[in-house]
C-alpha cells in the first residue's frame, strides 16, 4: 500500500472480535454493572436478616458544685470531675412485613436477570459495530486497489501518448491532458488513503486499543445468502435481549405492585438490647466526711413490636394505583419494542435481499467494464480511440468496482444487522 514503509500486523475478523470482547470499554463497563447487580442479590439486602449494632461511649465532665442544706452553710466543690462509660448491643429484627421481604428478594433476582440481558444486548451491539467497522476497513482498502489499477492505466496512457508525440502522431496537448488525468487519479488515491486511515482509527477505538496502531485486513467480504424472514422473526421473539429485558421489567413492576399492597398488612419485629453503664464522680470532702458518687448498671431488655397502618391520608391507595399504571406502561413498552424490532427486521431483510440481487448484477457489470477498459486501452495504443473515450472506459471500470465493493459492504452490514436483531451473533462467536 502506498506510503507504508513498515511491516503491518495482519488482523483477521476473528481476532478483532475476540480482542474487542475483552477490551472494548462499553463491554467492560456493563460487565462491572452486572457484577454489582449480582452482588445485590442477598437475603440481607432483601430484609430477611436482623441488624445488630454495638455502641460504646465515654463521657467526661467538669463542674463547680454548690449544695444548700437547711440551717447549714452551703457546701461548695470546685472542678468536680465525672467520668461515664456506656457499652451496649442493640438487636432489631423484622420477622414479618406483609411478605415484602420475599417480594424484594424476587425483585432483586429479576433485576439481576434484567442486567444480564442488558449486558448481552450491549455485547451484541458492540460486536455488530466491530464487524461492520472491520468490513469498512476492507471496503476502503479494496477501493485503494481499484484506484491503483486506474492509476496504472493512466500511467500507460501517459507513456503511450509520449511515444505517439515522439513519432509525431500526437499533439503536446494530449500529453498534458493525460498528465492531468494521471494527477487527478493520484489525488483521489490520497483522499482514499485518508478514508482508510480514518476507518482503521474507528476500528481501533471499538477494540479499545491505541488508535494509531496500523494493521492489514483480509481482502474479502463474505456475504451469506441463506436467511429466511420467518426463521429470523421467530429467533427475534424468543432470543432478542431487549425484548427479554422488557419482559423482566414488566415482572419487576408487578413485584412493586405486590410490595405496595403488602404495606396494608401489619409488621412484626423483635428488639433486644444488652447494656453496661458506669459513672464515677471525684471524691468530695465535706469537713471530716469524704463522699463519692459511683453508679453501675448492667442488664438487657427485649420486646416485640407490632404495627399496622390505620390511616395515612390514602397514600397507600395512591401508591397502589401508580403501581398498576406502571405495570400497564411496562406492558405497552414491551409491545412497542416488539413492534419496532419486527419493523427493523423487515427493513433490514428487504435491504439484504435487494443487496444480494444488486450484488449479482454488479459482478457481471464489473466483468464487462474490465473487458471494455482492456479493449479501449489496446485501441488507444493503436490510435483507434480518442483519449476521452479511453478515460471514459477507465472511469467506468473504476465506478463499477466501487459500486461492487459498496454493495458487498452494504449486504454484509444488512446481514450483520439481521443477526444482531435476531440475537445470533454471540452464537457464531461461541
Q: Specify the number of helices.
A: 10
Task: Sketch the topology as an H/E string, one letter per element.
Answer: EHHHEEHHEHHEEHHH
- Coarse shape: elongated
Quick one: how many beta strands? Answer: 6
Which oligomerization state do the chains in this entry correspond to?
Answer: single chain
Decide which structural class fits the backbone. alpha+beta
Strand order of the largest sheet: 2-3-5-6
Mean pLDDT: 89
- Assess the beta-strand content as a share of residues: 15-25%
For the sheet with most strands, the description reads: 4 strands, antiparallel
Radius of gyration (Å)? 41 Å
Unreliable stretches covering 5 or more consecutive residues: 1-6
Q: Can you give the helix content as a percent range?
A: 55-70%
Could you give the distance between the termini? 34 Å
